Amino acid sequence: MILGPTPSDFEDQQPSLEPTFTCMSHNQFDKKSNAWSALFSEPTSELVKRYTASVRFDRRLALADITASLAHAEMLKHQGIISADDLMAIERGMKEIRTEIESGTFDWKLDLEDVHLNIEARLTQLVGDAGKRLHTGRSRNDQVATDLRLWLRDEIDLIVGLLAQLQKALLGVAGDNADVIMPGFTHLQVAQPVSFGHHLLAYVEMFARDAERMAEVRRRTNRLPLGAAALAGTSYRLDRERVARTLGMVDEHGQAQVCQNSLDAVSDRDFAIEFAAACALCMVHVSRLSEELVLWMNQNFGFVRMADRFTTGSSIMPQKKNPDVPELARGKTGRVVGHLMGLLVLMKGQPLAYNKDNQEDKEPLFDTVDTLKDTLRIFCELVAGEVHAETGKKDVGLSVDEAAMERAAARGYATATDLADYLVKKGLAFRDAHEAVAHAVKAAMARQVDLAELALTELQGFHPSIGEDVYEALSLRGSLNARDILGGTAPSQVRAQIARHIKRLG
Ligand code: ARG
């Protein structure tokens, strides 16, 4: 994962400040002292600069910062606070800056602390006084909160797209395997036969809820802090709703969404925390699937094979193919859960309003997004395979060994409940039926045979109402077909669910 340059990337960089910053009385950044303003009697220590600077990682917010600044400037002009010429100059400068950033030629300076001051300083260098007017009615406190929300909103949209893709990938494999029988487990012991398609649909449900959670978080993220200024609001007649509309911070009815309390707007990061919580939960779901894949690939199961490009070999054991990808996804879940904890604790002791602590929200958030997106991308491909655009050739994803699954389902008396249900249908109370079947299982176990391998006369020894039709009830297929209830594992139900999901996902 790349979070931008490391501190050592800045080691050679001398504070190369431009002529416009040399006048101490008029500029924040003085060439000789590097002090903030005339108020400071000595420059910030180099160590403190390095400790407090965030540009190494928050430059990732650069495009959101420019977008928000342009919306702010347009509103300032509309309100008559800056001139049309100033706005044009700001737009021209920002265009240039954007090009520089995108082409990698922008000269990021550690001395300018963060992404906001770097961009503003460059703007002033490019367009002069208009650049100095951009910060009217604004503080870095409401600026950074706005940037983070804008950036996160776009990332949420990408994640929702990936979640839809993963659900579709799972639906494809579920559709091919609606009739495939595998042992369903409780306590990791064989419990009842289930359709492999049904098993995969459980994950589709989980990822569908993850997407719902993301949409909820997006709604609360997509609100505008700008106008809160440092903490108390501003005396300029800003039009906050105009800025919100420009930035697409509107609800489903097109109503501008603006943070309603300036102290809250600049200080809380609950949108980031609930996003991290949604990501942690999503990773937990991926992790559960990973654990199953690892288990299913074990030679004692042999239920699935993963394409070789998702596995690795061993440097010593020539026979090995290790499921590194699901193992790592399971491992990376730990770090995403850790980021959620980090963000919660970061917020815990903070008095109102903005505190520098909040600068520490970015790295965990960035890493959460990177980890989740990469994990979802790789799982889409791992499950569904990949079609090459140029050749149309398809690389396989997951391949299923139906026979191995069915063999495993046939072990472990998976249809014992079906025999009990059969007896209930013949008039027994369920508890009595349960007891009779326990005796039958005990007898079958002693002889190391399946219930269906007992002769009719033997079975009748456990209850006289048992007839020839018992063998249908005891068959895996019969057991599966019998669970023809909404949400059940009968293949007809599985197919109905797949159709519902496909329609829902569009
Ligand atoms: N880099 C800061 C952050 O990430 C920006 C806001 C700084 N505000 C301040 N008053 N120092 O939170």
Strand residues, percent: under 5%
Structural class: mainly alpha
Bound molecules: arginine
Widest sheet, order of strands: 1-2
CATH homolog superfamily of the largest domain: Fumarase/aspartase (Central domain)
CATH class of the largest domain: Mainly Alpha
**CATH topology of the largest domain, which one?**
Fumarase C, Chain A, domain 2
Radius of gyration: 31 Å
Please give the count of helices. 20
Give average pLDDT, whole number. 92
Large-scale geometry: elongated
Number of strands: 6
Number of domain modules: 3
Residues in helices, as a percent range: 55-70%
Order of helices and strands: HHHHHHHEEHHHHEHHEEEHHHHHHH
Largest sheet: 2 strands, antiparallel
What CATH architecture of the largest domain would you give? Up-down Bundle
End-to-end Cα distance, whole Å, is 33 Å
Describe the structure.
By secondary structure, the protein is mainly alpha-helical. It has three domains: 18-24 and 49-136, Orthogonal Bundle (Fumarase C, Chain B, domain 1); 143-179 and 194-395, Fumarase C, Chain A, domain 2 (Up-down Bundle), CATH 1.20.200; 410-505, Orthogonal Bundle (Ribonucleotide Reductase Protein R1, domain 1). It is built from 20 helices and six strands. It has helices at residues 46-52, 55-58, 62-78, 84-103, 115-127, 129-133, 140-176, 196-221, 240-246, 262-267, 270-297, 324-348, 362-384, 402-410, 416-425, 430-446, 456-460, 470-474, 476-482, 491-505; strands spanning 181-186, 189-195, 304-306, 386-387, 394-395, 398-400. The strands form three sheets. The protein has a two-stranded antiparallel ribbon with strand order 1-2. A two-stranded antiparallel sheet has the order 3-6. The protein has a two-stranded antiparallel ribbon with strand order 4-5. A hairpin with a 2-residue loop joins strand 1 (181-186) and strand 2 (189-195). Helix 3 runs antiparallel to helix 4 and helix 3 crosses helix 9 (240-246). It is elongated and about 100 Å long. The protein binds arginine. Arginine is lined by residues 54, 58, 114, 140-141, 144, 354, 356, 358-359.
